[in-house]
Design goal:
binds ligand MIG; about 800 residues; 10-stranded antiparallel beta sheet; about 15% helix
């Protein structure tokens, strides 16, 4: 006897899942709802267009007229603006500011976004919906366009030719060119072509697959579930688009100064005694260090919000003593809460209904370090406040920084994460994990940041996270997870971090020295030199790898590492100003060469050098035994900050790269702010501020440094305007070299009374119209901090 199952539709052979879909096609009607343009299509599909600024538009495409896709928590909502509309038989055009959207009727219908000159910048050729709830977008592409961004990905700087998956994943290994998903998902592309720069941001917390590999003609994006909800951002160049993109995704608040210092970590420093000895070692060896991280062994049986009393008998004393010596302790906090009925965090989580549950009501359990564990539902604000509140356990000990790991979330099972049907409450809009997976890390770091912010009474929190989504920079710095001690992994770090910067995450870094695998002396030296110029600078190694503190490989390597770390500390006033720029404008701290040389087509391909801010060009050494390297310099002149040798730009040069230091170049004549090196960073004790000009400017356009200064630890900069912004400009006017200092904003009283201007090598060829002193060939001028100044240098 056969049952009805015998004629199951999917067994009949004619069923083809692909063809079961339908396209966005056949426009039916248009209407306006306040500042939203609504266009109805066949199959009950609605396209909604909202112009958010003169250069940013949001488009949603979804089935059913009564639902309306809501921006995810990755987005900082911007209100829709009024627009004009033109309609004819075959298209609808909406326009506001620089941007127009053209919806062209047809089978399929297409969406084109064009600029004020009417030039199409981005075209969605088709959108297709499948019966299983997935959908696919095809973006038109052209051979001359190039793509960047996509957040934390392996591979080259250009994303043309790559295939990638947005699905936050705990990937211990491998991190190689085929690794499609890592810990952070930023579904964002920056397109560069002759017309300018264009951003494409897909707000999809569910899985999406991006294929830039098929051809140069199209990009396909397949979305597992949910509405098609995306933003297009227009601009002239990468800087402008990044600034606008971060209006949408949010910007980093200023981190505490200490977090810009050197961090030492290991999986794990096992005891209080070991941590205290480590700290002593840094101070006695005179290697600057600001933070020590505690990995999972500080806890009692991996229970978060506990210390193991045997290994860490007196955490309060330890934290206090170390703080006095200028070390911050950063303990790891994972999301999994051990299922232990005698553990208060577990009890509270259950009774407060803070953990993820199935739709039917039972708790979800997964295995992680503590064994069977429950997982907080960070999509709910009640859970976030509870979790944030729990951090009193740490803040009462004097801790100001927290390290969030395993928050993809990682689970020890085949899928490596939570089951897809586990529910998230999402503030009254419950959805399964499948739809919200990529939000988990973002929402956990948000809970952590907000909790710390409340408890630290005006001090700035530091949060480090492994997982994240659009906007993670609002709450945390990101490190790129479990790399290995391979030269190739150090090399890969550069394009990875540059693309993260373009994707809105300015404060990011990689495990210096490499996490897994045994590092090598020369590799550690070169990696420390590179790390010193990456935004987040932490040496970290795995439990089974050899130790890799800076002194582990003898005196020569130790001296190289010490010098590299000290170099960063010397440049902190410059670096901090670049951070402040990232906080104000969203520009990355480390930038691809093309970002500061938009017209230069060679610059677009350079993936093994980068800018720190606008004026420092770092050329890390990425090969063993390499003592020279090729460096591409964009237009202008460039001065090797160690040797003083000058290189002219718009060409490659071979430069010396001795083991002692990484090749670093300053834009000739541009202001670079430096200070003296101390064991740790404390702006209130900084007694020298030096503005150094390496070489002299060649062009008549002013090169600017907006020197930013504040106390480095409080929110007074935000709440009381307690900061200084000094605009320092340097330029040529005919034969003369003119340097100006303008006090754009004064609100912070510096510990020093003079700023020292140092013109390196200038005594040989320049004379200056003011009091100065000479140090070798350098000219030194002292300027009182409260004075606007103008200096003129003339050739001798
Ligand atoms: O499965 O806490 O990426 O930095 O040392 C390993 C132990 C869990 C992964 C993190 C790594 C950390 C390690 N963690």
């Amino acid at each position: 006897m056969q049952s009805s199952e015998a004629i199951h539709p999917e067994r009949l052979g004619s069923y083809d899942q692909q063809s079961a879909g339908y396209w966005l096609e056949q426009m039916i009607s248009t209407h306006q709802e306040k500042h939203t343009l609504c266009v109805s299509f066949q199959h009950d599909i609605q396209v909604k267009v909202r112009h958010l600024t003169e250069s940013i538009v949001r488009l949603t495409v979804q089935a059913g007229s009564d639902t309306d896709s809501v921006p995810s928590p990755g987005i900082t909502p911007l209100a829709a603006q009024p627009f004009t509309i033109e309609e004819n038989q075959s298209s609808v055009v909406s326009r506001f500011g620089e941007l127009a959207v053209t919806i062209s009727n047809g089978s399929p219908a297409s969406l084109s976004i064009s600029d004020s000159q009417g030039i199409s910048r981005l075209r969605v050729d088709s959108i297709r919906f499948f019966a299983d709830g997935s959908s696919q977008l095809r973006l038109a592409s052209e051979a001359e366009a190039d793509y960047f961004g996509l957040g934390e990905k392996t591979g080259w700087l250009s994303k043309q030719g790559s295939k990638t998956v947005m699905w936050n994943s705990d990937v211990y290994a491998p991190h190689n060119l085929e690794t499609e998903a890592l810990y952070v998902s930023i579904p964002y592309l920056l397109k560069l072509d002759a017309k300018g720069a264009t951003g494409f941001l897909l707000d999809a917390p569910a899985k999406s697959e991006w294929n830039l590999q098929k051809s140069h003609q199209e990009i396909t994006i397949t979305l597992d579930t949910g509405a098609v909800d995306f933003y297009v951002i227009l601009g002239q160049d990468a800087k402008q688009v990044t600034e606008r993109y971060t209006e949408l995704s949010g910007r980093m608040p200023l981190p505490p100064a200490w977090s810009l210092g050197y961090h030492q970590s290991r999986y794990s420093y096992m005891s209080q005694q070991e941590v205290e000895q480590l700290a002593e070692e840094f101070r006695s060896r005179e290697i600057p260090c600001d933070a020590i991280h505690l990995d999972i062994h500080y806890m009692r049986g991996y229970r978060v919000f506990t210390f193991d009393a045997n290994r860490f008998p007196n955490p309060k004393k330890m934290v206090g003593n170390l703080l006095e010596q200028g070390f911050h302790i950063v303990p790891i906090v994972d999301p999994g809460v051990k299922r232990d009925v005698e553990y208060t965090v577990y009890q509270e989580g259950v009774s407060g209904n803070y953990f993820c549950r199935r739709l039917e009501g039972e708790l979800y359990f997964g295995e992680v370090w503590p064994g069977i564990s429950a997982f907080p539902d960070f999509t709910s604000s009640a859970t976030r406040s509870w979790w944030g509140e729990k951090h009193k356990f740490y803040t009462q000990l004097g801790i100001q920084g927290i390290w969030n790991d395993m928050n993809e979330p990682a689970v020890f099972n085949e899928s490596k994460t939570m089951e897809l049907d586990v529910m998230h409450q999402a503030e009254g809009r419950p959805q399964p994990h499948r739809a919200l997976h990529n939000l988990y890390g973002l929402q956990m770091s948000r809970a952590t940041y907000e909790g710390l912010r409340e408890q630290l009474q005006g001090e700035r929190p530091f949060v480090l996270t492994r997982s994240g989504y659009i906007g993670v920079q609002r709450y945390a710095a990101v490190w790129t997870g479990d790399n290995r001690s391979f030269w190739e992994h150090m090399e890969m770090a550069v394009p990875m971090l540059l693309n993260m910067g373009l994707s809105g995450i300015p404060f990011a870094g990689v495990d210096v020295g490499g996490f897994a695998y045994d590092t090598q002396p020369e590799l550690l030296a070169r990696w420390t030199q590179l790390g010193a110029f990456l935004p987040f600078f932490r040496n970290h190694s795995a439990i089974d790898a050899i130790r890799q503190e800076p002194w582990r490989f003898g005196e020569e390597i130790e001296a190289v590492c010490r010098a590299a770390i000290a170099r960063r500390y010397r440049l902190i006033p410059y670096l901090y100003s670049v951070f402040a720029e990232a906080a104000r404008k969203g520009w990355p701290v480390v930038r691809p060469i093309f970002m500061e040389a938009p017209g230069d087509s060679t610059a677009r391909t350079v993936a093994d050098e980068f800018f720190v801010g606008r004026h420092l060009l770092a050329a890390p050494v990425l090969r063993p035994q390499q003592r020279k390297r090729m460096v591409y310099f964009p237009e202008g002149e460039w001065v090797d900050v160690e040797s003083g040798l000058t290189y002219s730009g718009a060409q490659y040069h071979i430069v010396d790269a001795p083991l002692s230091h990484m090749p670093l170049f300053a834009r000739a004549g541009a202001p670079i702010a430096e200070t003296d090196v101390y064991s740790h960073l404390q702006f209130e004790h900084q007694d020298v501020l030096r503005i150094v000009f390496y070489g002299h400017p060649v062009g008549e356009t002013a090169e600017t440094l907006d020197l930013y200064e504040d106390d480095g630890h409080s929110f007074a900069y935000e709440q009381k305007n307690a900061y200084n912004l000094v605009r320092i400009q340097s330029k040529r006017r005919g034969n003369e070299w003119i340097v100006t200092l303008d006090l754009v904003h004064e609100g912070y009283s510096t510990p020093y009374t003079y700023r020292e201007l140092r013109f390196t090598g200038a005594a040989k060829c320049w004379q200056i119209d003011t009091d100065y002193r000479q140090d070798g060939d350098d000219i030194i001028v002292q300027l009182p901090v409260d004075q606007t100044s103008r200096l003129i240098l003339r050739p001798m």
